[in-house]
Amino acid sequence: MRISFHTTGLPAAAAAAAVMYGLLAGPTGHAAGAGAEGALPGIAMSERSARQLGLHEGAILEIAAGATGPWLRVRLARVYRPTLYPSELALRTVDVRLHLPDLQALEGGADEVDSIVVRLRRPAQANVVAARLNAAALGFRAYTSADLARRNSSTFEVIARFHRAISAVSILASSVFLLAIMTLRGEGLRRQVGLMRLVGISRASVAGTVLLIATGVALLGSAVGIGLGYAVSAAINGYYRRLFDTTLVFSQITPALLADVAGLSVMLGVAAGALTAWRLLRQPPLRQIGR
Amino acid sequence: MGPLAFLVLRTLRRYPVRTALVILGLSVTGALLLDMTMLSRGLEASLGTVLSRLGFAVRVVPRGTLPFSSNAEIPAGDRLAAAIAARPGVAAAVPVAATNLYVRRGPDRFPSFALGVPAGGSGVYALLDGRDLPPPGSAGGGVVVINRNMARLDGVKLGDTLVLSAVPQPFVVRYAAPRTFRVVGIADFYFDLPTQRSVALATPALRGLQGRPEGAASLILVRMDDPAGADALARWIAARDPHVDALSIQGFLGRAASQLTYFTQFSLVLGTISVAVSFLLITAIVTLSLEERLGEIAMLRAIGFAQTRITGLVLLEGVVLSAASLPGAFLLGLVISQNLDAILRSAPSVPQNLHFFTLTAPAALRTIGLLLVTGALGGLYPAAVAARLGVAATLHGEVLS
Amino acid sequence: MTAPAPSAGMVVAADGVVKDYRMPGAVVHALRGVTVCVERGACLAVVGPSGCGKSTLLHLLGAVDLPTTGRITLLGQPTDGLGDGALSRLRLRHVGFVFQRFFLLPMLTAEENVGLPMMEAGVPGAERRERVRILLERVGLASRARHHPGQLSGGEMQRVAIARALANRPDLLLADEPTGELDEATGREIGVLLREVSRDGTAVVIVTHNPDLAALADRQIRMRDGVIV
């Protein structure tokens, strides 16, 4: 099998090669590639890519940096399961790691890398080290892991804002729905309320009853909604984990979210009930019973 | 107007507050549904619009690098472009080189995307001000066209001098010395990110900066006399050179769609929920409303309205509620979509000319159809209640109550 | 009492009609074999105590309900074996109903209520409007045509209901306690109006507790426990 790689894959490969080198050395201490087939350079391939290409550990393949070669015969030494970023889930690229010298040889031998990953003896000094490297003005920029995480999270922050905006619209729809139902119920209760007031039940008691009904409906609805939410969340996680072959969590219900839902539903219920009660009580009781 | 429509409209007007609330609720859920139908293919539609505006019917890129990679190249791109240009029906085949460069203007230094084009007027960008690059081989080389971002953010003006280099710091350079260029034009580069700088220059000049020989191309853009032949030409190109991917606009969009599954699936889930909520709202309101007027329904049956007519009456109520919510749904949906679009476009790596929410005729028709069908379905249960009504028993019950 | 032989003037006939209602744990025998017929232009009053089956008989005569056993013949056609569509068409074109509770649609004006059966029967707009005008004049409410039921008195509402019942020129008009919600004087006016309707050729059957109203009819039948006594 021949696989040609374009150099977009270079940064990850170059950076990973430095990490993977130690792994590929193995317990014998020999560099990967020792022994018969072991004379061939070893590469590692992601589980999904290996499945996609029908390859197993030990398979021999040829790789090149460009479609026209030159080709390098390699041995698939390791199939690994990468932790994918969510943004990578839908990608169908072949993911390969190889030793840095092998990749540089494929690329024409130049001593070039796209990034260098640095492990510090004292990780708490990361900011200081990055600042010193940047001040050296050697034609590169240094970032701490926290910087990178912040930069790489910007897409997910956008998605989070997007979801919040959608939630706001959903809450608006639910509020109007609740108001419509309570208005209908209120109109249905008009005669009853008129009779209640005629026999001496106070406005406050009537209002309280209506508020209780509205809040109860809202809370009950929320309880059912939460149950439904758990079910849908489980279905979404199950489906997309299977689809993308990952253990990432796509949908998560947290205690804070539950508290928000319950609180909001009480608020909406009280508001809808208050409005309904106001509409009911502003009419004289005789008129309410149709006299 | 038939008696059913007449009765439905009068029934809905009977309780104006209630009807208004229901229509408002349906407008909100309808707006969400419209937004989701806009989102499901919105980016694809927007991309298609921009690609069509560009006017290139076929794109050729190194195999496996869609949508675009500035690192991979088609080794004999110029030769391939010439072969494509010789095909019948091809108006032009433009090989384009792309890379990242560094720009120095006075004390300021910043990175920039760079396009190497054979000559001005290639159509790879749209000139907004000034003049285009000169024809190949003409005097007056050493000029560049910049994008609006560079003009706006860095204050670069027509006539300014820029120093371009392939690496950031001149003193690190062992090869490919920086060169000076004069800005002659400002253009829209179509796929620029919101703060991205872009610059276009003659391909030989770009290759000189990179220290690379000419002949390779990052992509080839093909303009055709009749775009209907795009797929056939793409197949010919792919057969001629198996190391490239050649795609018509539709083919390109199809590939892009497979990478936009998040939005398709998100919009499907949320669109389904919107439909479900609309259905519940209509069912609840029509059922509650029906229960208040069972006596009237029984009277209508007694005076000669058949069961099927009563069923139709109740179903029509649901449909009319949905239909009445359509103007509000579209108005609200378009307003909300602009906000949502702005949120998503603030993500990194989103070209400023692309939109996630695009109103297309199919999206609008799908929304209208779904809402009207939901209205009818929402009326099914109450219609069944009305149809099964015992007329005599109901009339008797109304007297007793 | 056995049914008389069918005649050209007979509008509706009940022959040995039984109607049972199945309730949880019991069967209610609302009618236990009733035989009666009504001719064109006749005015029949059905009297009896509450629960004797008067309204049930009315509903069967008007093809709103079907007997458990026995036969109802309406305009020469037996009602058993007819589907809902056919029965509805019969009621729409040949039967008019007047209810104790009026059952006017509150969101329609008087003229719209009267015109509703004609609308359903497909009567063209101009003809419908003219007939509505005539009917409202006939019941003395031409000046209240644009009023809603909420703006009318009980008597006025019942007049509108009678006009509606006459919309499609029915052969049979069935009135179930038409004066039940009205005061005495108004009830008498309604009774007189119904009597006029029968004199114009429409067969009228009135179910009533009111002996004065019953006395206006050509003929009275008394019912008790589901039978004619």
Task: Write the topology of this structure.
The complex is a heterotrimer of chains A (291), B (401) and C (229).
Chain A lengths: L1 E3 L5 H16 L16 E5 H7 L6 E5 L7 E9 L15 E3 L1 H7 L19 H10 L9 H8 L1 H45 L4 H42 L10 H27 L3 H4 L3
Parallel strand pairs in A: 1-3, 2-4
Antiparallel strand pairs in A: 2-5, 3-4
Helix pairs in contact in A: 6-7, 6-8, 7-8
Chain B lengths: L2 H12 L1 H25 L1 H13 L3 E5 L14 H9 L4 E16 L2 E10 L8 E5 L12 E5 H7 L6 E5 L13 E10 L9 E5 H8 L8 E6 L5 H11 L3 E5 H10 L2 H32 L1 H9 L4 H39 L15 H18 L1 H8 L3 H10 L1
Helix pairs in contact in B: 1-11, 2-9, 2-11, 2-12, 3-8, 9-11, 9-12, 9-13, 10-14, 11-12, 11-13
Chain C lengths: L9 E14 L2 E14 L3 E5 L6 H8 L7 E6 L2 E2 L5 H11 E4 L11 H11 L4 H14 L15 H12 L6 E5 L7 H16 L3 E5 L3 H5 L3 E6 L2 E2 L1
Parallel strand pairs in C: 3-8, 3-9, 6-7, 7-8
Antiparallel strand pairs in C: 1-2, 1-4, 4-5, 9-10
Helix pairs in contact in C: 3-4, 3-5, 4-5, 5-6
Description:
The complex is a heterotrimer of chains A (291), B (401) and C (229). Chain A has 291 residues and is an alpha/beta fold. In chain A, 57% of the residues lie in helices and 9% in strands. Chain A has a 5-stranded mixed beta sheet with strand order 1-3-4-2-5. In chain A, helix 6 packs antiparallel against helix 7. With 401 residues, chain B is an alpha+beta fold. Chain B is 53% helix and 18% strand. Chain C is of the alpha/beta class and 229 residues long. In chain C, helix 3 crosses helix 4 and helix 4 packs across helix 5. The longest helix of chain C has 16 residues.
